[in-house]
Specification:
By secondary structure, the chain is an alpha/beta fold. It is built from 15 helices and twelve strands. The chain has a seven-stranded mixed β-sheet with strand order 9-8-7-6-10-11-12. Strands 1-2-4-3-5 form a five-stranded mixed β-sheet.
């Protein structure tokens, strides 16, 4: 099991990214093991009574990467390909992202290996409640706080909050973020990741002296992050020329009607049957389209050594976590024609507003959406400025600059706290 975990492609990828930056920062070998490997990893069995009366068993995971500066924070993913290794890699990326954004959290991630699209709402509710119950000894508002990710949403968080609160005996909204506003969720949290992606894309267009108005955007993944990014960029005057989901994509060089697409997906759940708005394309074709901005907003490891040479974008905005393999990245860092906004920066808007939600819940004092967005943009702007400035000053690739800033903060915190006992 441990071998499988250590050899998982996503975990190997996160470790390679870490090693490159640790070499650059000259982190001593003895300190590397402490800052690199997860502090805790849990595997739980989740028996669920299915609608047909049978009992199905699901595997659930949670990895808490480090607890040096505050509780751990990170999403919960429902997907058939979830493994402990993938979750561990996502937890590491969360740590670096939180440190880079100046949040008092270590990274965490969780997942259940299941296909939520094939499960009924009651089955998903029973699975979520049982997973939460199994996690109760290991989570808490000051220990580990979950949020939605791929395949989970506000409703998932509401069930988690209810299960935890029933156990404790009083409402504990601060146990999760990304929950409905009616339960103590933050205004603007659902849109925060996509909104942040759109903000950073705009800043980069501006830096590269390119106009937002009319810029051509292609987006892989049309879920929470992809659809909100599309909507925001569309509002700024950009032309969303292609979007896709797990069923494939749609392409129209004149620009797609983003709001009509969102309505369509809300009704039909996916883009598979959509006709008449543009040409059908595959996910592979979408990545290779001629465009100004390419936004992978679905799964990890989509841009590989095989397709990286075929990218025709000026900006690669990594809304998904880990969308570019290390091999592809080695090629990309040589390509001066593609500017990369690395994942730990690009999608940080989500965890930033999750942090705002946690703070609001702890204080039972809630902010308006305008206040949330204003604080979000200011925090993102600081992180963006720090990364671009550091990259320029040290002649670094954007990913290396972002990771160096994040990893260095964690190493520094661990050094200051010292080794217990
Ligand atoms: P989601 O479940 O709402 O949407 C995922 C989208 O990807 C769906 O449209 C789905 O059909 C599509 N998809 C799935 N498999 C695909 C495939 N093989 N090819 C193309 N498309 C595929 O999830 P989300 O919350 O939008 O998350 C998307 C990505 O953003 C993930 O990598 C997630 O880790 C990352 N992220 C999410 C948040 C957040 O706040 N939700 C924050 C930071 C990062």
């Amino acid at each position: 099991m441990l071998d499988e975990f250590m050899q998982s492609p996503a975990f190997v990828m996160a470790c390679q990214q870490y090693d490159r930056v640790a070499d650059y920062l000259s982190i001593p070998q003895g300190e590397r093991v402490r800052t690199k490997f997860p502090r805790r990893a849990f595997i739980v069995s989740i028996p669920v009574r299915m609608d047909d009366g049978q009992t199905a068993m699901f595997a659930g995971y949670r990895v808490q990467h480090h607890l040096s500066v505050g509780p751990t924070k990170g999403g919960l993913r429902y997907h058939p390909a979830v493994t402990l290794g993938e979750v561990a890699a996502l937890a590491m990326w969360m740590s670096w992202k939180c440190a880079l954004s100046g949040l008092p959290y270590g990274g965490a991630k969780g997942g259940v290996t299941c296909d939520p699209r094939k499960m009924s709402i009651p089955e998903l509710e029973r699975m979520t409640r049982r997973f939460t119950q199994e996690m109760i000894p290991f989570i808490g508002p000051h220990i580990d706080v979950m949020a939605p990710d791929l395949g989970t949403n506000e409703q998932t968080m509401a069930w988690m909050m209810d299960t935890y609160s029933m156990h404790v005996g009083n409402p504990v909204p601060q146990i999760v973020t990304g929950k409905p506003v009616a339960l103590g969720g933050s205004a603007g949290r659902r849109e925060a990741t996509g909104r942040g992606v759109a903000y950073l894309v705009n800043r980069t267009l501006e830096n590269l002296n390119m106009a937002s108005e009319g810029s051509r955007i292609a987006i892989q993944g049309f879920g929470n992050v992809g659809s909100v990014a599309a909507q925001q960029l569309h509002r700024f005057g950009a032309k969303v020329i292609a979007v896709s989901d797990y069923t494939g994509g749609i392409y129209n060089p004149q620009g797609l009607d983003v709001n009509a697409l969102i309505d369509y997906v809300e009704k039909h759940k996916h883009l598979g049957e959509l006709r008449g708005m543009g040409d059908r394309i595959t996910n592979e074709q979408l990545l290779e389209l001629e465009c100004d901005v390419l936004i992978p907003a679905a799964l990890e490891r989509q841009i590989t050594a095989q397709n990286v040479g075929k990218l025709h974008c000026r900006i690669l905005a990594e809304a998904a976590n880990g969308p570019t393999t290390v091999e592809a990245d080695d090629i990309l860092r040589q390509r001066a024609d593609v500017f990369v906004i690395p994942d730990v920066l690009c999608n940080a808007g989500g965890v930033i507003v999750s942090y705002f939600e946690w703070v609001q819940d702890l204080q039972s004092f809630f902010w308006s959406e305008a206040e949330v967005n204003d604080k979000l943009y200011r925090q993102l702007e600081t992180a963006y400025h720090q990364v671009t400035h550091f990259a320029k000053k040290h002649n670094l690739y954007m990913r290396d600059a972002a990771l160096a800033l994040g990893i260095n903060k964690i190493a520094e915190a661990k050094k200051l706290r010292g080794l217990f006992p």
